[in-house]
Every structure is written in structure tokens, then in C-alpha cells.
Amino acid sequence: MAPTITASEATHILQLVLDLGGTFVFAISGAMVAVRHRLDIFGVLVLAFAAGNAGGITRDVLIGALPPAAIADDKYVAVSALAGLITFLWFPAARRFSRDVLWFDAVGLAFFAVAGAQKALLHGIDPVMAALLGMLTGIGGGMLRDVLVTDIPTVLRADLYALAALAGAGVVVSAHLLRLSPIVAAVAGGGLCFALRYGAIRHGWHLPVARSVPAGDGADHRGDDARR
Q1: 2 or 104, which is more confident?
Q2: Which residues span the domain enclosing 130?
Q3: Is residue 37 included in any domain, yes or no?
Q4: How far is CA 107 from the centre of its chain?
């Protein structure tokens, strides 16, 4: 008779799959950025690990899941190293990866936004904070990746990034409150997150940005301030 899997075991397996899937995809995006900046093999592996695990480590520290899974479980290091090596060997002669990085980043964002929210909920975190932690899990790796190569982090640019992660995590939290299946929550939340990033990448969807003030107007205002 085949052993049955309990609901808690199934949830744990789903969590691990989402975490490792996000780690692998984000590690590929980090390695692609490293190759684009012509880093050596060690630099590629470092950036792959940083991109693939920074968000998850931050989440685990904040919810008290210590030591963080990326440090306690060598599967995370192995997955990151595998993604880095594949990228280094497969794309050594490529020159431009900007579009590919965006797509891998979008997939990783969806994985981690869902995984982050679900893990926070499993640790008894308030639903609102669980959604925010899902967003933080999603954006953390990409932010560190971009900072390490002195790029402006994608999350700070005028497109749907953090909002997409928050929307995906919000779906997971809502499904949890409605007592829906974690698998349904993961598919729906991840799908919404990726759809928003797809629209941002393909169709230029973005949040409103501040209008720039003409130089003449700024000079006039400074003059008015001085006269006052």
C-alpha cells in the first residue's frame, strides 16, 4: 500500500518546490547579468547565489526561521551553482542579455512572491505582513543583484515590479483566508504576478511618475524664495 502524504507534508513539498524553483530562475538571471558584465566564473557564481537567495534569506530572518533555509540546506547552494555554471558555459559569447534577464527575473519574481507569502503564513505571520514579506522575498534577490553590478535596481524603475510581487502575494493571502488549496493559491498568485510583469515588459505598463520641473520654473521659484 502506497504511503499517503498529509496536508502539512504536501504544503512543505510545495513550499520547497517554489523556493528552489525561484532560486534557480533568479540565479540564472544573476548569472546572466554577471556574464553581461564580463565577470569571471567566481563572480558569476557569487552573483547567481546572491540573486537566487537574498530574498529568501531576508524573509527567513524576519520571520524567525533560523538558520535561513538557503544556509541550512545545501540544496539551495547546489541549485544556485548549477544555474550559474549552466549560464556561464552556455552563454559565454553572447553580448546582450537585457531582454532574457527580464523574463527570467519575471518568473523568479512570481515564484518567490508566492513562496514568501506562503512561508510567512505557515509561521503564523499576520496576513497583511505576510503579503508584504512575499513582496520582499520577490524583490530582494533582484535588488542585490543589480546593486552588486552598480545598476539601478529594477524595483526602482518606472514599471510594475514590486507591485506585481505584492499583487501575487496578496492573492496567496486571500486564498489562505478563504481556505482555498495552497496549490490553487500558488498558481493564481504566481500567474497574476507574471502577467503584470509581462504587461510591463511587453507593453510598457508602469506606475505614474513625477513630472520633471522645467529649469526656468525652478530658477524662478528659487528667486521668489530668496525675495521672501
Answers
A1: 104
A2: 9-208
A3: yes
A4: 8
User: Per-residue pLDDT tens for 112-149?
Assistant: 999 999 999 999 999 999 999 999 999 999 999 999 99
Domain membership of residue 2 (yes or no) is no
Phi, psi angles (nearest 5°) of residue 92: -70, -30
> Is residue 213 assigned to a domain?
no
CB 123 within 8 A of CB 64: yes
Asked if residue 99 belongs to a domain, the reply is yes
Nearest-angstrom CA–CA distance, 205 and 179: 32
pLDDT in tens, 62-102: 999 999 999 999 999 999 999 999 999 887 554 555 567 78
Name the maximum alpha-carbon separation found in the chain. Answer: 89
Number of structural domains found in the chain = 1
Distances (CA, A) of 225 to 213, 214, 220, 221, 228: 16, 17, 9, 6, 5
